[in-house]
């Protein structure tokens, strides 16, 4: 029996190695001018940033890793020894406060246009925009009942099973709203709310499921919900509760050890730029953090002066986040929803 | 050299039986086959078994952030028990519905001719053409609370029942998976020898009774095998569950959520949930084996039944019923086509107003997911098919002591959901001797592992029909064994390999549940992008990518069946 080698074996090996090699050899992002943004924002908002960046930062490619803000921050924490991301966008101070060691202080040249309240005093983070909490209502699914007007209205058992909110452990949107509700209506109010709502693990589900009519009321931020109103879906309306609603700046931060280096700072500057924030307003209805953009000139969102704001202390919320989430989870578990 | 000539040589030299066996073993060690078997076993152990073992170990050793083990969390929070029960329930119900639709459809298609039978032939395609990731959402576009059909009916005063939760999950999954039952049963009925039925009838049993008594034991294993496959797919289903299970906690969704929450930290909860899903499938596998083992019959050479012509009202009825099933199955495809060309403002669709902007956008500004998909899937298909070919030759033609293990390991991914495979790969190749996290290689690896059973099964399908005598004849004429293999066996296998390549490709480009766990920034594929767009409520853009994905899937199928005349589903008798 003669031996002519092991052609099949060799071919298999060569094919496998060549395949793996080719994949590994795809350019790494440091070479290709890429910046990776860990973002809890939806596709509309991210694309607004990408669109404007393609003009302002030619040759720089922005990539997204998406997920809930809490999820992403925990992931960044886990990756801290070998950072994979360059920028984290975004979360409220109530959530960011617990992850300070992840961020690199950076004072952007664009900072002059941002009010002091929307910027971390030691430059750990800056705001791209300001969020306003609303109840997104699908009037077709109310079953003929009146739309809620206040947060207190939402405690009514008639909304049981018709209302949806995200899990505050994953979503700073939900944390902002629930924390505010407890401050406004007390521990009993929070308990009654827990009896009424369905909790979903992802914030995006709130919008989709109210838009599609699976739920009648979604507790969320104005910006993402307004897309349905602007898109012309007649049965969707936004309720700014008249007993006062909660606002929170949407902060972003430069990550320590960002692999993209200087490019990451350029992308940071870009998020603060007038072009990016104007496009974020136009395409994703985010009220800009910059003081030099006139909201009413661009979109039909109600002016901030017409919205009653219930002030909340985000420092306190940040400090008590863990304890609050535990309490909320116990309430939800007890409600059996 | 064949066994016969070895025995003859042994007889001539007067060797005893043990030393003869020894001589045979030694001789076979001089061929490449046993070494190849060992090499492939080593690959499978490293890239498949090791990740799975890591998951199992992780479920016991992992400690979550709050200091509890995965099992402690699962035991303490009732939603995990509910999710397990819901998952089993959903698996059983969908499997039953899939049988109810798939078996009669296969029976009527095999035994009767009726008007419009041609369209039933497209069914197997539907299964692989409609990406799971988009199926649920397209159903919602039609019959969700804000769906086109729902609204149209509401205007005429008809209220559709809510599609969310159980109704939607069961409907969408049934129509996504029943074709597996159809394909499996059809092949078995066509392979069944009608003479058995005739013999039973001539012995005095009534036609209906004889059909039942004789055919059932022969067709049953195929039906049960496809039922098990459906059950497994339902348990592992992530894409449909993600969209529809807000009110019904399911294991696959909780596993994904646990994975996303635990990325980089100790994978306690995710590995526990993954272990639970493996356990559910193993239980089902065990039950199926028990039923099949009770009676096993094989038909040696089948003479398939001639299809009976049905005309008149019975033909029309059958044609209509079959047509309705096909139409419903095609609903997602139709929705994708309509959605891709419908104007949208943000998340709101403007039905009746058309545009090509979404497709233009994909090509001009968002081409990367397409390129990533093509690159990774092409590499994975090349590797997967090479492995599948070699493995099928080893398993079917070059058996040795290690063959059963190789056979078993190759089929193992069938029992694992994409999520479990993704978690295992992530846990195993995150750091250490082979760090693949953040590379494209881990996506390719996930693809290869996940689709290996499909490729191998298809590549080996014709191998059983290639008699060993052909190979032996060539060898006895003086052609060395390896050259014989390359020149004689491989060309005979070519059509099966081509079919395996096409099927591996089509199922790989649509893969979501494993790749969404292992991908990193800049490496998103089309299904991942579609998933994100759906999550952001941008259905029109998602449909545009969906349409493109379907094109990427359909094109090779058309080329293979039209021009290369490849029997993709090995279902023709």
Any overview of this molecule?
The complex is a heterodimer of chains A (about 325) and B (about 575). Chain A has about 325 residues and is an alpha/beta fold. Chain A folds into 2 domains: about 30-130 and about 250-300, D-Maltodextrin-Binding Protein, domain 2, CATH 3.40.190.10; about 135-245 and about 305-335, Periplasmic binding protein-like II (D-Maltodextrin-Binding Protein, domain 2), CATH 3.40.190.10. Helix content of chain A is about 40%, strand content about 20%. Chain A is built from 13 helices and 11 strands. In chain A, helix 6 (about 170-195) links the parallel strand 6 and strand 7 (about 195-200). Chain B is mostly helical and about 575 residues long. Chain B has 2 domains: about 65-340, MetI-like (MetI-like fold); about 355-573, MetI-like (MetI-like fold, Orthogonal Bundle), CATH 1.10.3720.10. Chain B has helices at about 5-15, 15-30, 35-60, 70-75, 80-110, 115-120, 125-130, 130-145, 150-155, 165-190, 195-200, 205-235, 240-245, 250-260, 270-295, 310-340, 355-365, 370-395, 405-410, 420-430, 440-460, 470-475, 480-510, 515-520, 525-535, 540-565, and strands at about 110-115, 310, 340-345, 350-355. In chain B, helix 14 (about 250-260) packs antiparallel against helix 15 (about 270-295) and helix 25 (about 525-535) packs antiparallel against helix 26 (about 540-565). The longest helix of chain B has about 35 residues, at about 80-110. Residues about 1-15 of chain B have low confidence and may be disordered. Chains A and B meet through helix 1, helix 3, strand 2, helix 4 and helix 7 of A and helix 3, helix 14, helix 18, helix 21 and helix 23 of B.
């Amino acid at each position: 029996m003669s031996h002519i080698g092991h052609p099949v074996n060799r071919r298999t090996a060569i094919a496998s190695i060549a395949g793996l090699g080719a994949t590994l050899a795809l350019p790494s992002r440091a070479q290709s001018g890429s910046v990776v943004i860990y973002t809890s924002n939806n596709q509309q908002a991210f694309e607004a940033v990408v669109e404007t960046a393609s003009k302002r930062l030619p040759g720089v490619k922005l990539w997204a890793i998406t997920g809930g803000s809490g999820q992403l921050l925990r992931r960044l924490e886990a990756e801290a020894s070998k950072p994979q991301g360059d920028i984290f966008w975004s979360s409220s101070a109530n959530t960011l406060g617990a992850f300070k060691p992840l961020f690199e202080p950076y004072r952007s040249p664009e900072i002059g246009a941002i009010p002091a309240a929307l910027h971390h005093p030691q430059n750990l983070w800056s705001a791209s925009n300001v969020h306003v909490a609303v109840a997104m209502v699908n009037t077709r699914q109310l079953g003929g009942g009146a739309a809620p007007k206040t947060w207190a209205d939402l405690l009514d058992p008639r909304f049981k099973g018709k209302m949806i909110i995200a899990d505050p452990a994953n979503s700073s949107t939900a944390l902002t709203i629930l924390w505010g509700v407890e401050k406004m209506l007390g521990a009993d109010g929070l308990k009654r709310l827990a009896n009424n709502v369905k909790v979903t693990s992802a914030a995006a589900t709130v919008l989709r499921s109210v838009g599609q009519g699976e739920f009648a009321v979604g507790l969320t931020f104005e910006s993402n919900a307004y897309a349905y109103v602007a898109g012309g879906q007649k049965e969707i309306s936004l309720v700014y509760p008249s007993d006062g609603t909660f606002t929170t700046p949407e902060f972003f931060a430069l990550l320590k050890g960002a692999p993209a280096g200087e490019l990451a700072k350029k992308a940071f500057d870009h998020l603060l730029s007038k072009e990016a924030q104007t496009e974020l307003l136009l395409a994703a209805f985010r009220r800009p953090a910059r003081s030099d953009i006139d909201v009413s000139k661009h979109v039909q969102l109600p002016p901030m002066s017409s919205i009653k704001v219930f002030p909340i202390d985000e420092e306190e919320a940040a400090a008590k986040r863990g304890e609050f989430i535990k309490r909320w989870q116990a309430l939800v578990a007890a409600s059996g929803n | 050299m064949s066994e016969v000539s070895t025995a003859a040589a042994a007889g001539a030299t007067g060797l005893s039986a043990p030393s003869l066996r020894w001589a045979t073993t030694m001789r076979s060690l001089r061929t490449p086959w046993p070494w190849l078997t060992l090499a492939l076993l080593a690959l499978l152990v490293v890239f498949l078994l090791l990740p799975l073992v890591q998951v199992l170990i992780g479920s016991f050793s992992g400690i979550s952030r709050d200091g509890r083990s995965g099992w402690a969390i699962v035991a303490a929070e009732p939603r995990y028990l509910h999710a397990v029960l819901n998952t089993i329930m959903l698996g059983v119900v969908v499997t039953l519905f899939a049988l109810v639709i798939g078996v009669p459809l296969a029976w009527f298609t095999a035994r009767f001719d009726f008007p419009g039978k041609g369209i039933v032939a497209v069914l197997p395609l539907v299964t692989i053409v409609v990406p799971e990731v988009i199926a649920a959402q397209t159903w919602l576009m039609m019959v969700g609370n804000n769906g086109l059909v729902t609204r149209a009916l509401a205007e005429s005063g008809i209220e559709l029942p809510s599609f969310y939760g159980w109704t939607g999950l069961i409907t969408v999954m049934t129509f996504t998976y029943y074709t597996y039952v159809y394909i499996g049963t059809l092949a078995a009925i066509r392979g069944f020898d009608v003479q058995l039925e005739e013999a039973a009838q001539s012995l005095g049993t009534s036609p209906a009774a004889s059909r039942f008594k004789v055919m059932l034991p022969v067709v049953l294993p195929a039906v049960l095998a496809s039922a098990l496959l459906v059950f497994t797919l339902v348990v592992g289903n992530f894409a449909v569950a993600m969209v529809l299970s807000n009110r019904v906690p399911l294991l696959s969704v909780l596993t994904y959520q646990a994975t996303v929450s635990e990325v980089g930290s100790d994978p306690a909860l995710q590995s526990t949930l993954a272990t639970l899903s493996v356990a559910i499938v193993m239980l089902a596998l065990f039950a199926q084996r028990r039923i099949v083992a009770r009676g096993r019959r094989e038909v040696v050479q089948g003479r398939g039944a001639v299809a009976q012509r049905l005309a008149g009202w019975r033909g029309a009825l059958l044609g209509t019923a079959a047509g309705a099933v096909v139409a419903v199955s095609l609903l997602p495809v139709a929705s994708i086509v309509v959605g891709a060309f419908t104007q949208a403002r943000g998340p709101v669709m403007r039905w009746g107003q058309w545009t090509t902007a979404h497709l233009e956008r994909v090509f001009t500004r968002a081409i990367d997911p397409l390129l990533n998909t093509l690159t990774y899937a092409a590499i994975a298909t090349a590797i997967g098919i090479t492995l599948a070919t070699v493995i099928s030759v080893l398993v079917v033609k070059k058996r040795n002591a290690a063959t059963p293990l190789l056979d078993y390991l190759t089929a193992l991914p069938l029992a694992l959901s994409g999520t479990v495979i993704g978690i295992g790969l992530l846990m195993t190749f995150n750091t250490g001797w082979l760090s693949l996290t953040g590379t494209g290689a881990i996506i390719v690896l996930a693809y290869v592992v996940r689709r290996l059973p499909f490729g191998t099964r298809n590549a080996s399908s014709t191998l059983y029909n290639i008699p060993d005598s052909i190979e032996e004849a060539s060898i006895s004429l003086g052609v060395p064994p390896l050259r014989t293999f390359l020149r004689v066996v491989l060309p005979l296998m070519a059509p099966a390999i081509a079919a395996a390549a096409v099927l591996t490709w089509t199922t790989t480009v649509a893969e979501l549940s494993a790749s969404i766990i292992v991908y990193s920034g800049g490496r998103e594929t089309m299904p991942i992008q579609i998933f994100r767009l759906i999550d952001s409520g941008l259905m029109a853009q998602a449909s545009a990518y969906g349409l493109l994905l379907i094109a990427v899937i359909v094109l090779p199928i058309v080329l293979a069946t039209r021009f290369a005349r490849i029997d993709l589903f090995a279902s023709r008798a």
